[in-house]
Design brief:
This protein is α+β, with helices and mostly antiparallel strands. 40% of the residues lie in helices and 20% in strands. The chain contains 14 helices and 18 strands. A five-stranded mixed β-sheet has the order 2-1-10-5-6. β7 and β8 form a beta hairpin. α2 crosses α5, α6 packs antiparallel against α10 and α7 crosses α9. It is globular. The structure holds ligand MTE and molybdenum atom (MO). Molybdenum atom (MO) binds next to loops. The ligand Nc1nc2c(c(=O)[nH]1)N[C@H]1C(S)=C(S)[C@@H](COP(=O)(O)O)O[C@H]1N2 binds next to loops.
Amino acid sequence: MADLRLRVVAGIVSAGLTLGVAELFAAFLGPDNAPLHVLGSAVVDHTPDGLREWAITTFGTNDKAVLYLVMGVIAVLVAGAAGAVERTERAAGSWLFVAFGVLTAWLAVTRSGLSAAMPTVVGVAVGIFALRALTRRIDAATQVLRAGAGRSTVDSETRPRAETSRTSGAERHRGHAERTAGTGDVSDASADGGSATGASPERRQVLRGLMVASGSAVTAGVTGRLLGARRSDVSGERAAVRLPEPTAPAEPLAPGVDLRVPGLTSYLTPNDDFYRIDTALIVPQVSKDSWSLRIHGMVDREIRLGWADLANRPVEEHLVTLACVSNPVGGDLIGNARWLGYRVDQLLAEAGPHPDADMVLSRSADGWTAGTPLAVLTDGRDALLAVGMNGEPLPVQHGYPARLVVPGLYGYVSATKWVTELEVTRFDRATAYWTRRGWSALGPIKTGTRIDTPRGRGRLQPGRIPIAGVTWAQHRGIRAVEVQIDNGPWQQARLSDEQSIDTWRQWVLDWDATSGPHTIRARATDGTGETQTAERRDVIPDGATGYPSVTVQIA
Ligand SMILES: Nc1nc2c(c(=O)[nH]1)N[C@H]1C(S)=C(S)[C@@H](COP(=O)(O)O)O[C@H]1N2
Ligand SMILES: [Mo]
């Protein structure tokens, strides 16, 4: 038993060394080539829709941490098993390492080219070397122990299996007792190993090997991680970026855009509070100096713009409310910011899209894609190649150095962060990331309302209580919000000033609350006169519908 435990530990330590060494190599070749990241990204890309939605609703923004945790547990189990079956004369565990290496290297190569497999290959080679060496020592120590553990142990251990199984119950019991006694000897030996009274030199060799290997694993892994982060981190250069003065500044904020009701979401969302959704396990670190935007495909002239090329172009600033298609009714995957950037319609016009093109497939530095109708990008709305957010360079996790922002469309079909390519194409020729996974090809934002206050079972007293929230119908605008209490009549709420049809608005209704439980519902009518539907639908395939509803208890 004791040697099985050592073998399991040897497997885990060797796997740790594999990952640690790979991490160190990946620091130089790009942190997204580390095996854990390669495997994690493959899992993210191939998770079935149902499971993904469940993970997002259950773990929220922690979904990535949970993924790594699950992968870690599986890695420990597999590595332990590999160690348990490895023997000097039979490299069964090493083959598990090889299988892991082949799968991961293949995923890395298909994702980002031949050199991406390097960290995995080197890591697996070192891991197998360690597993072989540790197993040799364990085998040697085990033989010595067996030899020294007395005749009875040797007896029971060397009795052929078939014979053992044919022995009587009593014999079997005795055999078990003997083995236990034998194991007892082994444990005693290991206990002695801890004290100075002399474990076998072979056993000390094993422990020393395990210590050296695990120390190296941790050192390599931590160094690799830190070095990788340091080498690729762009937060320093971002802090030094001087944004251009907008040639067309944002319209000044209307004084009544913010109703300033306690508990009500602020009109502008600070960058630090802005929701974040993307498939990236490591936030892409794209330096503005290596960044470029290539506009190609069905165009008259392919163009490529670097960061410096943007400097002498007109730059505009617009308020746009961004929303995620995965936002459930009442959810908070929505935010409103002031974006600084370059008009996409002008950039496209320079390339000259062909008349039969109908889609722009935008691609990010990490390979993610969105498919946006060409007509939407060229109909005069303020679609931007954004470089600034609320007066700062884009935060790295929101797409530094450049991203798309398109009023009126959900993020998954428009808001590509770390954007490097606009390919002019057709919907019948190209399919974007989420559309391939069952989401709708078109993603206009649906009219929505959210009740921010009151919420839940706070201690509310009867009397005047403001009911307030936000409402949005990007690029159509909002005409009205109505509120219903306990199946009563729909009452008109008061709307905040309209800043633009591309941003959300706040609303409030003063309510004379009476004791007892109450259910509050809300609904909005957009600028075209259409009231949002009461029909409850899930976020898949093109956004949730239904009235938001909260139940409150008044004392
Ligand atoms: N590169 C990249 N861009 C992306 C995504 C992504 O996964 N990768 N997700 C999109 C989705 S689904 C949304 S809702 C918005 C969210 O933008 P935010 O994280 O800045 O709020 O980004 C979009 N841009
Ligand atoms: Mo999204």
